Write the structure tokens for this entry.
Amino acid sequence: MSNKSIVRVRFAPSPTGLLHIGGLRTALYNYLFARRFGGTFVVRIEDTDQTRFVPEAEDYIFDALAWAGIQPDESPRHGGDFGPYRQSERLELYRTVAEQLVRDGHAYVAFDTEEEIDRMRASGADGAPARYGTATRGAMSNSLTLTPEEVSRRISASEPHVIRLLVPEGREVSFTDAVRGPVSFHSDELDDQVLLKSDGYPTYHLANVVDDHEMAISHVIRGEEWLPSTPKHLLIYEALGWEAPDMAHLPLILSPTGGKLSKRSGDKYGIPVFVLDYRDQGFESEAVINYLALLGWHPSSDRERFSLEELTTEFAIDRVGSSGVQFDIDKLRWFNEQVLREMPTARLVEAVAPYVAGAGFEVSHEELIPVVELLHDRLSHARDILQYREFFEDPASYEEKAVKKRWKEDTSDIIRSLADELAALEDWSAPHIEQGFDRYVETSGFGRGRVMPATRIAVSGRASGPDLFPSLALLGRTTVLRRLSAAADVLAVEAS
Ligand code: GLU
């Protein structure tokens, strides 16, 4: 993408709440871009909006990145030569730059009250609010319309005021976006953006530009919602005589039916919207990362499965699409399943253990190993282990539909005599159980198709599940015989 040889990119979240999954994708693309080009990945906390500041949000951001395996090179918590990395610790700098812009005639001081601004906005044609800009600024209370003496007097009297960017008239502001190609805005459509607020804090626009420059950011990779801000930023760079970074705006993440993926639409489709909800719902971070990488980026081959490490060599910003991408939770589940399948048993045991314990079962890691080995390819989610509760407790009930279909009047007797056959086995191993089972099938004349589902129902409560004979072997003779007998009793009553 670039003519810039030293790559420094940044993820610049505002600590206003829980980190959205779209924010993690932005962080990921920045991280991958940095790794691909041997560059530096900076995390900067953009905390200049006092009204929306949430104290816990910064912890959440770093916890989310750590969970995802995205390691910042520089940040308020990782240090670096370009700090401080929290904007609230750099306020002096923004003020100095804003004042310099005023001195150089690229910005001006404005004293308008809220009512005056509301009145100006209401004067817009066709019901659209008017801009504070080329067409309206001449009628407002600012240093362009007031005498220098009046301006000084008002400032000395501590009248509330802001500093606004003086957007030049009749200019085309154009740039090439690495994702969207050539983009152009007309300056008459831009607001004279507030740069410094009356509380002395910078707006996002000023602080963002100043910091991208001061932190030597080479490429800005961020969500599409920031595209309309870019021409204002470019005008600020120009006014300051600074070279702007290259720009890349990532496509929006949409709900399955289109429209922005919000908390509300996410809830509707069972899509977690905040990053750590994925962790808390037992998704593997590697699956989430793999899925997010493909949510907007197209690899050069059909391959879909990538580890984070592999992505760092594959990812290319010029293969990011420009149109919105719909979030598909089933696809994410598919990735999760792939990740679980590739996991060594020991790690899968670690992943499922909290769910098993959380459901109140006291099972050691040792005991979980054979269960996990048996179920390895059947789990698309660590929590799915709880669909196989038969490995931890006797069935509390039997699936109604299965019983109706599979448990006839004589089934209880069949199961009792099968139990007798199995009780006599010398060796309780899967092959021996299978032999005993087949012997029974043969001598009794009841087909496998009748005996097998009934056995499953008796031991697990369901007519389907993992391989039967290894399951019986794992459950142990006492448990299996107990369950066969219990089911024969309970279901005999139901079937009659
Ligand atoms: N602070 C902005 C945000 O919360 C950063 C936008 C940008 O990357 O420029 O997303």
Summary: The two ends are 75 Å apart (CA to CA). The pocket of glutamic acid is lined by residues 12-14, 46, 204, 208, 222, 226 (CB under 6 Å).
